[in-house]
Every structure is written in C-alpha cells, then in structure tokens.
Prior knowledge:
Strand content of chain A: 25-35%
Subcellular location (chains A, B): Cytoplasm
Mean pLDDT of chain A: 92
Subunit structure (chains A, B): Heterotetramer of two alpha and two beta chains.
Low-confidence stretches of chain A: 185-191
Structural class of chain A: alpha+beta
Pathway (chains A, B): Amino-acid biosynthesis; L-arginine biosynthesis; L-ornithine and N-acetyl-L-glutamate from L-glutamate and N(2)-acetyl-L-ornithine (cyclic): step 1/1; Amino-acid biosynthesis; L-arginine biosynthesis; N(2)-acetyl-L-ornithine from L-glutamate: step 1/4
Protein name (chains A, B): Arginine biosynthesis bifunctional protein ArgJ
Shape of chain A: globular
Oligomer: homodimer
Largest sheet of chain A: 8 strands, mixed
Number of strands of chain A: 14
Largest interface: A-B, 73 and 73 residues
CATH class of the largest domain in chain A: Alpha Beta
Helix content of chain A: 25-40%
Catalytic activity (chains A, B): N(2)-acetyl-L-ornithine + L-glutamate = N-acetyl-L-glutamate + L-ornithine; L-glutamate + acetyl-CoA = N-acetyl-L-glutamate + CoA + H(+)
CATH architecture of the largest domain in chain A: 4-Layer Sandwich
Number of helices of chain A: 11
Radius of gyration of chain A: 22 Å
Amino acid sequence: MSIECSPLALPFPALPAIPGVTARVARARYKSWDRCDLTFIELAPGTAVAGVLTGSRCPSPEVEWCRKALPLGEARALVVNAGNSNAFTGNRGRAAVEAIAARAAAHLGCRPSDIFVASTGVIGVPLPIDKAEAGLDNAFAAPPCSWEDAAATIMTTDTFAKGAVTRAVVGGKTVSLIGIIKGSGMIAPDMATMLGFLFIDAAVDPAFLQAALGDANRKSFSCITVDGDTSTSDTVLAFATGSAGNAVLAGDEDDGADAFRAALQDLCHQLAQLVVRDGEGAQKLIEITVEGAESDASAHRIAMSIANSPLVKTAIAGEDANWGRVVMAVGKAGEPAERDRLAIRFGATQVARDGLAVEGYDEAPVAAHLKGREIEIGVELGLGEGRATVWTCDLTHGYISINADYRS
Amino acid sequence: MSIECSPLALPFPALPAIPGVTARVARARYKSWDRCDLTFIELAPGTAVAGVLTGSRCPSPEVEWCRKALPLGEARALVVNAGNSNAFTGNRGRAAVEAIAARAAAHLGCRPSDIFVASTGVIGVPLPIDKAEAGLDNAFAAPPCSWEDAAATIMTTDTFAKGAVTRAVVGGKTVSLIGIIKGSGMIAPDMATMLGFLFIDAAVDPAFLQAALGDANRKSFSCITVDGDTSTSDTVLAFATGSAGNAVLAGDEDDGADAFRAALQDLCHQLAQLVVRDGEGAQKLIEITVEGAESDASAHRIAMSIANSPLVKTAIAGEDANWGRVVMAVGKAGEPAERDRLAIRFGATQVARDGLAVEGYDEAPVAAHLKGREIEIGVELGLGEGRATVWTCDLTHGYISINADYRS
C-alpha cells in the first residue's frame, strides 16, 4: 500500500552535528524492501545515557536489554532495526539482541552493556541474526550519514522523517540538544511503536539526565495518544557526550540546570508533537487542556479520557462541534468532576458553562475553528488547581484503511 | 442518513405478556420525525424495582431521578423518551423529569417517586416539557401495544428492535422474565446510550432483586463494549410484578433463588449480546475469554483492554490473524501478566504458547475462522484461576461513517 505524507507533516529541520556522535545506516533487509533499515550510531567514550521504556507487561527483549543496561549510565553505540520488532519471540529474540550487542561491542572494543538496541516492525518473528550481523558489518564500513537519513532509516510506515533541535546555555556554554523519532506508522500485522533518540553535547551526569528525562517525558511523550494502544517496544533514550565542555551538570543547584531541563522539555515536546502529526490517518492535530481538576494527575487522566474517546475523535474528523461527547468523556474518566460546574470551549469559543450550553451559543466560530488543521478543546472543572495538556489526532477512514483494509 | 440493518441482527422473539405490565407508545415528536418516540409502561401496584445506572460523573437528570427513587423499591410506571437525552441541561432538565413524573403520577394516582424515567438522544438540549406532557397524554389514551412496538419506540439509531425472554421455576411456579433494550445506535451529535428494561412476573423482594441484578450486570452489561465510551444516561431497570403467584423471593435460601438468578443472568446476557450485535458499523461479534489471571477482576480488565483496542478491532475487521496486537493489549492493561507464559488462540486454533508463536503455526484454520461472523479470541495467562469473558464488535469504516461523516 502506498500512504501519502500526512497533511500535518513538518519539514525536517537543519540539525547540527553533535561532536562524538556519528550515524551510519545500512540495508539489513529485514523485509523484502530496498531501503536502509539498520541504523548504527557510534558514541564517544564517556557518553552518559538515560531512558524511558514502555510500561507494557509484555516488552520486547530490546526493552529488557536497555532496562538492564541503563543503570550503568554509559553508552558507546545505539543500534536500531526497522521492519522487525523482535517482540514476543522467546529465547531466540533475546539471542538476537545479545548477538547485536556483542558484535558492536567487538567492533568498538567496549562492553556489550554499552550498546543500546531498539527494534520496530513485525511482531512474533525472531530478528534474523544473520541479517542483523551482516547489516551491522555493512554499517561499520559505511560513510557517516545525515540526521535526516538516520531519521528516515528508523521509520517503518511513518509518512515523514522527524527531527527537532533546541539549545540552552549551561555553565556559560551554549549546548545543543537534538532528537530523531519514529512512530504512529504501522507495518501490518503490527502495532505502532514509538522510538525516540536524543543526542546532547552537554556534559550531564547520568542520574541527573535520567531525572530530567523522566520529568520531560511526563509532559511530552506521556501526553500523546493516537489510539490508546501501547507498543511492546516504546523506547526513548537520551545520550549526552559532554563535548560542549561545560562543567558536568549533576544537580538542580548547578549553573544552567533549569535551562537544560527547559530545553530537554522543549525537545521532547517537539518530538512528541511530530508523532501525533503522523498519527495514522490523521487529518487534524487536537490539543486538549483540562484545568480546575483536583490534581495534575487527575487532569491528565481526564484529558487522556477525552483524547482516547473514539466518539470525540470521530466528531473532530467530521468537523462537528459535538461538546456532548466531551461531557461523556469527562464523565467516564472516573475522576472527580461535577457536572454543574463543568465548562467547555472549542478554540476560543465557550460552548458550555455551569453544566449547560451557554446562553445564545453561536456555533459559527466553532465550526470555523473545526475546519482548521489544529484544534483546541478546553475543559474547566472548577474544582481545584490541577491542569494538564495532551495531544491526539482525529479518527478517520484513513486509520481504518491502514489497520484493517490492507494485509501484509 | 439511512443505515442498513446490522448483519448480526437477530429476529425479535415472541415475548409473553406479563400480567400487570401494559405498554403504550405515542408520538411526542422530540425530533422532526414521524414515529413513536415516547413509551409509557404501566405497572401494577406492588411492583418491585431494581436498577443499575451509569457510573458517569456527568449523569443525566433521569439517572439522578432513578438513583433517588430506586431505594424505595416500588414502581408504578416507566416513561422512556427517544430523540433527546436531556443530559447536561441544568435545572431545566431536572424540571422536565419532575414534570413527567408528576403527570404520570397524577394519571395513576401514585407518588411521583413511583415513576421511573429514562431518555436517550441529543445532549445539551432540555427535553421540551410541553412535548413530553402532550406525548404522555396521548400515550395514556393509546391502546396497549406489543413488546416489539415498545422495543422499537425506545430505539434511536439502533438498526433493529431488541428483545429477549427466559423462564425459571420458582417455588413450584414457572415464572417469565422478558426484556427490551436499545443501544449502540447514535443520533448525531450524540453518544450512544444503553437503556434496558426487564419485566418479571415473579414476586421478588426489591433488595434481593437488586442484588441479583447487580450480579447479573457484572457478567453481562458490564462485559460488553463497542468503543469504550460510556454514556451519561446508561440505565437498566428490572420490574417484578409478582403476578406469577410464587412466595416472595427474598433471599438465596428461598426455593428457586438459584434458578431465578440463573434466569436473570441469562436474560441480561442475551440482551447485552444484542447491543453488541448492533454496534455501530459492526460486521463481526467478538467474544474474548481471558483465563489463568490472578483474579476474575484482573481477567476482566485484561479482556476489556483487548476488547477496547482499536488495533485489535481493526485487525478483526480486516480478517487478519494479528495475534501481536492481542499481546500488545494484554501488555498495556497494567495487570499481572508474564510474557513467556502467555498463550493465545483464535477460534479453536492455538497461535502462540509460552510467549512465542507455536511451532509450525498454520494460519489457514485461523483465516477461515476470521471470515465468519462470530469470532473467538482466547488468552491464557498461566498465573492463577481468574477468568472473564467479554464481547465486542469489530471497528470498521461504518463506525467512522456513522460518527464522523454525517452531521445532524
């Protein structure tokens, strides 16, 4: 099947080189396609690493490998396979990850635990070790590639390559944070997987990097949803080389810590948005803000209840100002809410207040807002100070076509 | 828009009269349609009542009214409005319910709290009191109607009228339990609503009826899902007239209590299945059984995670034996599960065991099973004795068309 580029796509940005980070790509031919599908990213000795991994109870062996290696805090390379997720493959899947790590470690003269591995694609088929090893050998011999090539090589059925960049001043040095990500594409018969990789030239202590990434994740990757389904392979890794020459950032009292946290948050936010913009069948990007909840966590759960509601998402697809479905989604979230305090807006227009439609409600400005590509829904609960913003896309015939009509 | 009858529809069964229960229908014209949309069901004095109501935090005033009246345990009439749910309408919505109850109570010479009211349809528009009162007056004057007419009058965009019957022997008497239900139809711009009404000729104490209905609900209405969205108006009410002449059933030690509970369970099961069979856009009925969980509740949550997964539901729509998506849905449920003990079957065919595809897995019998109308998915967790079965339908272009393409 051929899928057109998402109408919400953004062009790939100019990403700076990060000294100590070298990307190479190769054809492992995990599927019968003629494209690069193996990415090998070499990292200078001393690179710090942090990560967030899927909460799935049925994770891929790659996820288990990364979970074990992360506490060591150091990385020398990242290997990403596209076309085969290696998930649910038992001992043979574990053996494939071990073989990849061993081969890359031998090439670099480092420990296998310094090699991070992620895979995305078909489930239930062990990653073929011979193809992985041959692909790796080809990658070792390949010339360095651009960030855009690397971002394209980790894609499965994403419709555009995704990257982002931001900067911060840390201890008097300007540091760069860049990232590439793939997600919300689909290879039947498979679930979408989000894989994101961040590369930073600042010197950052792994524990501090982990804390900052965890916080940034909570307000970015954990705030997006396409269909409420969670992959067995979701992985976000951050690598910090230290080449910028700043004094190592190790705690919130250090000079530039706030700026670094803000920049990391910005980068994660940008990357998360790109995934929603490539949501399967997406025609509209939807931002949902819930305020006045009893807590931020409660606001988040209500916002995700709205964002995952098929009825809300189909209404937006139909450009229908169906605020009743928002009420429904608030009501079913199971969180504290009082119908008669609830207020709802679409874009800048208040549609309901105090539990009923506003007097003289005029649908015209709402209808105009809903014709756009970027839709805002605001909910005010009137109970407390809790707030959260999440992002999703609309639910369209394109989603059904991608996931039901076409078989591998 | 015109919607064809669901391919999963069943014919309306022959339902016996329940002495003391008289249904009448009328045109209140809540929408600009020429069909009966108000149902008035008179109940003999002394009729016991029990009910289960939506857990939504934003319920309709009808739901609040029923919640308040249920503990009194007695009912003299049920009024059902179709075409306007009266939800999210503030004080004006409450006034409409009070007016309906007052008028019906005056007609019957009973307390307003003996009148039960349910409404389904457009949200955010107060139910017009003048239409409701005129409709009621017409209904009082109308001749009794058939159960099929009553079942058709409570429909919104359901594609077929739904009813069921079962019997039990209680204290030496054969008693009849019948029910009508509507649900999973949709009136844009609105959410689907499930309204179910059971009529029983046995004499049953209200507290025992409530306990039995609660148990039956947990294994029937609480085990179905079309899209994971919960209406603000979901209501199931059971009325027992006592006309069968049995000694009042008041506890589990009474003669026939087990048979009565089993029959009530059977009736609720039948009615719940009918709702899934009329799921929006449904082409296939899917039964999901989870076994070997740590508890029944855990099994239920995992089964609902599978049943609500858009990726599983689109795979079934595409007749795709995509067991990887079932693994994904088990993994994301957040319940105890061990990947390497997991076994999955489609129909009678085992596809995965011990966390990977079965040796020599042959997709042919699975593909044949998936071409049918009734699909079975089995998951064995290998952890304990917990089990649950839930029902859903596939997710098709029809769902998108009903909920996005057509505006009111």
